[in-house]
Amino acid sequence: MSFLGFRKHWRTLPDSSPRAEPRNHAEVKSPVDESGPPPLPARPPIGWRVLFVGGDSLWFQQIEHDLRSLQPAWQCQLAENSLAAGRLLAETEFDALIIDTGNAERDELANRLQKNTGTRIGLARCNLSERATVALCQAAGIAPVAEEGDAAILVAGLKRAERLQQWMSNPAIKKLLPQLRTLPAAPELYVRVSDELRSAHGSMASVAQLISQDPIMSAKILQVVNSAFFGLARELTDMSEAVMIMGAERIRSLILLAGVFSQYDASKCPGFSVTDVWNHSVQVGVFARAIAFTETKDPAIGEAAFTAGLLHDIGKLILAGNLPQMYATVRRLQLSKKIGASEAELMALGITLAELGACLLGTWRLPLPILEAIAWHEWPNHSDDTRFSLLTAVHVANALTHERQKDPEASGIDGNYLKALGIDDDGNRWRSLFGLQPKDAVQTLAERVRRRREVKEN
After folding, report:
1. For residue 300, what are the CA distances in angstroms to 47, 219, 304, 313?
2. Is the pLDDT of residue 365 over 90?
3. How far is residue 372's CA from residue 355's CA, in Å, rounded to a whole number?
4. Does residue 334 sit in the same domain as residue 390?
5. Which of 77, 168, 352, 445 has the highest CB neighbour number within 10 Å of its CB?
6. Quick one: average pLDDT of 99-105?
7. E-only strand ranges, 127-196
8. Other C-beta atoms lying within 10 Å of the C-beta of residue 178
């Protein structure tokens, strides 16, 4: 049974809807084709066989019941210990292995998971605040998930792990990764703040105190918060006040962005402006949050869109900071061929930098909708969206930010993608949010200017 054959993927937070398999850029014959890479051949949906190792039998019965309601075609089985799991793995091909890390034999199970070719995906239920356990799981190629997570959390974890496996299997990624000296690591402050927010005793005051202990990060966050992007009525100088007004999630996302930027020095890369990418990323995050909240009225989806918007161009920073000459080559190709950035990246690298960024950020346990919004923000037609999603918010926000900056090289909003979602105004409903003229009005004005010029010439 092929794990890649399954075609349902989580889209929004926390809903799910049918999804298409990702497009394999290794098979692209014409990377300049504006429609993007072709899809893989469609395969019929199939159920997964999931093996649970360890854990309480009563808990398993409840989880199995909940999973059946979410994924009726899935089959679940429980192995009490590593020996029982080993026997089952020798006899049956399982698509996923979910390990209870309370089991003393977790090291042996991790080794079995790595060596067993039939097992595609591994999850480990653990206390995410236990760094040693999380590090052990990651070293074994097993994605850690919260031990208190319900069936929906487990499904989301499997979907994220599957998508990352697909991205990592891309030959272009395999060729590029060994050349990257510095891979993005989750900033220490981000991890500590995340642990604090996850804690039952966590508070906004505690979050502000943690941030205040890092003077450089504190100054950077206050600088961003007080910038024109957020339009606050007065300047904030106290971190506690900034956290209360901005909210812990937005502050945490800004820590993530600033932490990643601090890991790379791309200031000497030809054609790359750290300041421009930083400002563009913050603007897209702000726009994406506004668009997502306007459409869904859900603060959680708005914050997720903000995070995805902030991180959507991280792949550019990673390449410019590691391989500046290669980034410069992509840039020269874009200018000489007069093509979009993503087309030039495909031609030179075999993968877009957006996908590279999403692939490398995937180890931080960011939700799959955020990763897909990062990966496909230039080519949303890679998705099988049938309704508004995080990808929609980031795609439109990125296009409108370029439009507002009058960037002649940027691609606009994908009208066909919006029409597939039942949105036929080419983004005009969102343009008004950011002080942009409706597209038809802009075109009408251009037509008037042309006619006046013709009249004067005659």
Report:
1. 30, 26, 6, 22
2. no
3. 8
4. yes
5. 352
6. 72
7. 143-146
8. 7
pLDDT tens-digit readout, 313-324: 999 999 999 999
Q: Do residues 195 and 205 share a domain?
A: no
**Same domain? 106 vs 243:** no
SS3 content of the chain, % helix, strand, coil (to 5): 60, 5, 35
Nearest to 279 by CA among 238, 232, 313, 234: 313
Closest CA to 366 of 279, 278, 252, 265: 252
> Smallest Cα–Cα separation from 261: which of 248, 275, 244, 251?
275
In a domain, 449, yes or no: no
Q: What is the pLDDT of residues 217-254, one digit of tens each?
A: 999 999 999 998 888 888 999 999 999 999 989 999 99
Whether a cis peptide bond, with omega within 30° of 0, leads into 14 is yes
Instruction: Tell whether 195 and 236 lie within a shared domain.
Output: no
**CATH code for the domain of 409:** 1.10.3210.10
pLDDT band at residue 105 under the 50/70/90 scheme: low
- Rounded mean pLDDT of the chain? 82
Distance of alpha carbon 144 from alpha carbon 425, whole angstroms? 42
Are 272 and 233 part of one and the same domain? no
pLDDT at 173 over 70: yes
Higher pLDDT: 206 or 108? It is 206
| Interior angle at CA 282, CA 391 and CA 277, nearest 5 | 95
Total residues found in the chain within this entry: 458
Whichever domain contains 10, its CATH number is 3.40.50.2300
Residue type, 140: A
Domain with 254, as residue range(s), is: 200-260
Report the predicted TM-score, pTM, of the whole model to 2 decimal places: 0.81
pLDDT(300) > 80: yes
DSSP of 441-457: HHHHHHHHHHHHHHHHH
Asked whether 109 and 63 are in contact (CB, 8 A), the reply is: no
What's the pLDDT band for 146 if we cut at 50, 70, 90? confident
Yes or no: say if 218 and 208 are a contact pair by the CB < 8 Å rule.
no
Specify whether the CB–CB gap between 266 and 317 falls below 8 A. yes
pLDDT value, residue 93: 86
Assigned domain for 456 exists: no
| Residue 242: closest CA among 217, 262, 263, 278 | 217
Residue 455 lies inside a defined structural domain of this protein: no
- The reported pLDDT for the residue numbered 434 is 86
pLDDT at residue 340 in the model: 85
- CB–CB of 21/39 below 8 Å? yes
Q: Number of folded domains in the chain?
A: 3
Q: How many CB atoms lie within 10 A of CB 63?
A: 21
